[in-house]
Amino acid sequence: MLTRVAVAPSGFKESLSAEAAAQAIAEGVRRVVPDAEVDLIPLVDGGEGTAATLVAGTPGGRLVPTTATGPVGRPVRTHFALLGPTTAVVEMAAVAGLSLVPRALRDPGATTTYGVGELISAALDTGVRRILIGCGDSGTSDGGAGALQALGARLLDADGRELPYGGSALTTLDRIDTTGLDPRLKDTELLVACNPFNVLCGERGVARVFGPQKGATPQQVEALSASLDRWASALERDLPSDLDLREGPGTGASGGLGAGLAALGARLLPRFDVLLDHLDLDARLARADLVVTAEGALDFQSPRGKVPAEVARRAKLSGRPVLVLAGTIGEGAHRIRASGVDAYSGILPAPVSLPEALGRGAEFLTDATERALRMVLLGTRLAA
Predict the structure, then answer these.
(1) Which of 100, 113, 284, 297 is at a distance of 20 to 30 A from 316, taking alpha carbons?
(2) What one-character-per-residue DSSP string does 12-35 give?
(3) What is the DSSP string of 263-282?
(4) Residues 6 or more apart in contact with residue 374 via CB below 8 angstroms
(5) For the segment 246-279, what is each residue's pLDDT rounded down to a tens digit?
(6) Angle 110-149-80 (CA atoms, 0-180°, nearest 5)?
(7) pTM for the whole thing?
(8) Which helix (H) or strand (E) is 218 found in, with range?
């Protein structure tokens, strides 16, 4: 019998928060099984909604509103979170996310993580000594250069002039002057929750994998890749460490923000190890008869550190069936089955424009859940 359903979705970028997606799925479940016990477990991967979700799950946690420099260099209203007197959360998507980049200005060579550094500085002003930086849903590819600039580093060309914002500017980088770096960083633990599959440089470097999604042309992708190679060389020389900043796990997180922060001494950690364990997720999945997870897009990247793959992996530890719902089904989506997914489905009932799909996301997700659950119940009546 289907009496307990665990609903553990990610958010749908530019459409639904993880909480809204969970509510939409729950409504669809109750249309089919009105008496079902539905356990809502909205999940974050370091991207949009991370700070708010962690605050909601932390007694005494609170969001701190502020203003910082957005990805196109204009001030934006944003926030960071305090989870207690010593721990803060900086969500890079809240100040440098793709949703904050107007479509007409989507040039990943020009956008900046300067606001991320400003949020880290604002968090330090509260007296915390541990900062968790959530990486995901970025609209930038500057290798974290902007964040370092905001924290006091000077990026200089061969004539000693400071570079402007953006990854493209790194093509003229000569050296990094670190004498003005915020001294509080030395006494602060920086933990970066990131996708370890994302690396800064190489054939699978962040410019080549994610640049096109952020608006880069093929020519811009190659130019940006060369700029990030130059950035990595400068970091290795001027902020030396034992880390592999080029192809080390997580260095490509959020357009290379991982590498920039790692050069400051941050620890790059698998995001789910940092973000999910406080939810008692494994035990909650084990109690369910069916696990439903969801994400905006399902494609060849989904098995590489995305929420549905992680949920499926954990659900299979207790032998629970897993259904994935996705806003779009892309090339290579079938690979998600290797993670333990039993079935997946797109939520769109017919071809629609992108604005309509984003605006009606909750409606489409609820209806898709109902359709999928009815098929599940039909399947239980048929012998294999």
Answers:
(1) 297
(2) BTTTB-HHHHHHHHHHHHHHH-TT
(3) HTT-EEEEHHHHHTGGGTHH
(4) 32
(5) 999 999 999 999 999 999 999 999 988 888 766 7
(6) 90
(7) 0.82
(8) helix 218-238
